[in-house]
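W.,

You were right to be curious about this one. When I first looked at the sequence I had no strong expectations either way, so I just let the prediction run and decided to look at it fresh. Below is the sequence, 413 residues in total, followed by the output.
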Amino acid sequence: MQTADVIVLGAGMVGVSAALHLQARGRMVVMVDRRSAGLETSFGNAGLIERASIFPYVFPRDPARLVKYALNLLPEAHYHLTALPSVGPWLLRYWRESSPERVARSIAGRRPLIEHSLSEHEALIAQAGAGALLRRTGWIKLFRSEQTFRAGVADADKLAEYDLHIEILDAAGVAAREPDLAPVFGGVHYHDTAFVSDPAALAKAYADLFLSRGGDFVLGDALSLTQEADGCWSVAGKEGRIVARDAVVALGPWSDQIFKSLGYELPFGFKRGYHMHYAPGEGAKLRHPVLDADNGYLLAPMDKGIRLTSGAEFAPRDAPPTPVQIEICEPIARRLFPLGKALDLAPWKGARPCLPDMLPVLGPAPRHKGLWFDFGHAHHGLTLGPVSGRLLAEMMTGETPFTDPSPYRADRF
C-alpha cells in the first residue's frame, strides 16, 4: 500500500496542473491515470490559451439560426437524431442557462479565471522549460461576407471594457498577416491569446516537472476510488492501493463516472470534437491559428502539421466516431489554405466536458469530506487548467483564494 496526502485522478492538463499547484504548497501528491499524461482530451484541441475568451459559448437564440442547427445545415455543430433522447435534456438545460441574465453571471464567473489563464501557464512553462511550445501570435477570426464581418466586429466591440488588444483587419490586413490564405472579406486579430504548438507535449512537460519535483505517477483505475472507514480515499494502482486524505476528481469527460457513483446529480454534458493533421502545400505557411467563422472550423500550425479542428458534435461520449464535420470542412479548408496530404490515418475524436453554464465545477464535494472536484472546463481545458489548479490548491491548503470560488461550486444547479 502506498500513502500520500492527495490523490489526483486524471493526468490531462487539468489534473497535472492541480497536482503541480498542490505539490508547490507542500503536499505529497500521487497522480493516477489509465494512460500517460495528456493522451486523452488534452491531446486534441486548437492549442489556444484563450486569454480573450471572456464570453462563453452559448446556445443560440436566433430562430433562423436554430432552424439551421436543427437541420444540420451549419458545419460548426452537428447531431444525430438517434442521440436526441440522451443529449436532448442537457441541450434544453444549456438553452436555459444561455438566457441573457444567466450568461451575465457566467461572464462574471469566467472573467477572473480567463484573466489569469495565460500568466499561470507562463509560470509553469518557465518552470518546465517548455517555452519553445508557446507562440505569442494571437489568433485571427476570418469572415467571408460583409454581414458576418460586421457581426464579428460587433462581438469584438463588446470586449472593449476588458483591456484586451484586438485589431480589426480588412481583406488587405488579413493578407498581410497570412499571404497564403485565399482572399476573405476581413478578420479580427485577438492579440492577447497565446498558442501552443503541441498541447499533448505541454501536458507531458508539466507532468515531467511534477515527477522531477518528487511527485509520483501511477497507472491505475480511477473508477476504483473508495472512501475508507477512517475517511481516507483509496484507489487501485498497478502495484497496489494508494491511500490519501484527499482526492481530486479531474477526469474530464469521465468525471461523471465518479460523481454519479457517489450520489451527485450534475447536469453534465459533452461536446465532442475531431481533428486531423495535414501537410502544408509546397511553399505554403500558416503563421497564426485561423478560425473560418462562416464555416465553423479552425486551422492551427501545429508541430505535427496543420491541424483542422472541428466544431461541436452533440452525441454520447462513447458513441462511435462520426467525423462528418471534418468531411464537410476539409474541402472548404483546402480552398482557404493549400493543404497537402493528410498525416493521420483517421480523425482523432475527443469529448469536451461541459456544464450548461459553461463554467467548471471546482471545489469541495458537498457531502464527502476530503473529496474535491476539478472538471467541466468545456472548450477551455487547456486554457484554464493551471489557473483552476491554483484556485483548487488554495482552497485545499487553506490559503485565501485569489478569487471568489462560489461561481464554480458543485451545488449551484
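Here's what jumped out at me. The chain is about 30% helix and 30% strand. And, maybe more interesting for your project: Residues 381-397 form the longest helix (17 residues).

Coffee later to discuss?

I.
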